[in-house]
């Protein structure tokens, strides 16, 4: 793998880090399989791109994206809790609705940011090379997000959130409205996914309505790979594992794409197959390891 | 004072499996009452507790706690006044969270779970003191996750959590039924101790008639969704298991007779 491919993988890993932290919140903490992210990631990209095109500061556009994603997640949460729709179905409904909404937001299937300012500008202006600036900035931002989540999960609200995922009867008996917790947490998770989308569109230079396809699988793959490699004994460790999992996942994909066996090499169109294989390996590895150790 | 008026609850309403679980229950619970609830399977004991706690919506009737009419309150809102211990020791505590985190959640029962720190240092001293009265050594294991505890330890912790913030009424639904005899006895003694110390009002469902007579100041017997016996004070303390059985069969016998008369 070349240095550029390596830095590119880091950049992607950190940019998707927000999404992966969000997926950890819904899948692992809340036990809520949420496919909304396939729609909220491009929503974040669309909102950010439109905002920047309208002359809004790129950093402020991140906040807009976060807010838009939060609202999208809340819709899923409300569909599930207030209307009693199965969580999986509720999230799929929001996801397909978001496809149309994203087209409305952009007014076209994709929007380029050529020549427009991005969050990377302050760094590149200071003389940091483009290939180093993105991993550096996204790394700092995703670590900040991780620290914020670590704090949140140890607040009273965070404890109630964890209990909602683990034992709904118990936390209801302690006077907590689990509906509200679910709506806010799914909202937060999708806010993070949208932030990922905003960062990706700024580093790639365009927002595309189809950029969200397979987001949830990639997010889940990262969470599982992280857990398998780095463990999840405590909240702090699990959060760190999720972020590192995102990096490992992107590095693994980059490695696979740079692989050459004689005349054969993978192309980006093989990405979904590779992801599926990676998830299968990550899911079966812990069981396999236990079996081998028992002997 | 807790007032239950004409409480009716039907399961699977309108289907062939329709079951009338509570057929108009009337009960006035005085402050400080410790009521034991007995009855055969399907008599409506657990349903009564679940309807009180708000787990099941009721068909008709009224529930008042003090001056507050709570009939339409959702379960989590009722939890600000009502605390409960379940038969399943896993249900009352949260396994992945630590002992202190579970207690912190219980210590905030009925208040907003906001963005302040989950477990504060001052809380820990309180928790240690409270845990030490259980005599299980849990006061030295604040950071252990609850999933590591045995059923009995979890049930004792649940009891402590249910009384950490004093409830208007404590609901105990056969909370020792899933424990081994020795642990069950310990948890029962703890129950008595906590109720006596804090002068709690409590409803305790049990299958053990001897226990029902031994504990509390009042006893009610449910049958087919109705209260068929309500004794308290001296009258209760004079009763024996044989008296209870007699009452029970008397009611069943009457029904049998009336059914036959209908057929004739």
From TrEMBL, chain A:
Protein's UniProt keywords contain Transcription regulation: no
Subcellular location: Cell membrane
Keywords: Cell membrane, Membrane, Transmembrane, Transmembrane helix
Topological type in the membrane: Multi-pass membrane protein
Main location: membrane
One cellular component (GO) term of this entry: plasma membrane
Residue spans crossing the bilayer: 6-27, 86-105, 136-160, 181-200, 212-231, 238-259, 271-288
A Pfam entry, by short name: BPD_transp_2
GO molecular function, one term: transmembrane transporter activity
Protein name: Putative ABC transport system permease protein
Automatic annotation (TrEMBL), chain B:
Gene Ontology, cellular component aspect: plasma membrane
Domain ABC transporter positions: 2-249
Topology in membrane: Peripheral membrane protein
Subcellular location: Cell membrane
GO terms of molecular function: ATP binding; ATP hydrolysis activity
Keyword tRNA-binding: no
Superkingdom of this protein's organism: Bacteria
Main location per the UniProt record: membrane
SUPFAM superfamilies tied to this protein: P-loop containing nucleoside triphosphate hydrolases
InterPro entries in UniProt: AAA+_ATPase, ABC_transporter-like_ATP-bd, ABC_transporter-like_CS, ABC_transporter_ATP-bind, P-loop_NTPase
Presence of keyword Membrane: yes
Protein keywords: ATP-binding, Cell membrane, Membrane, Nucleotide-binding, Transport
Descriptive protein name: Putative ABC transport system ATP-binding protein
Naturally occurring in which organism (per UniProt): Malonomonas rubra DSM 5091
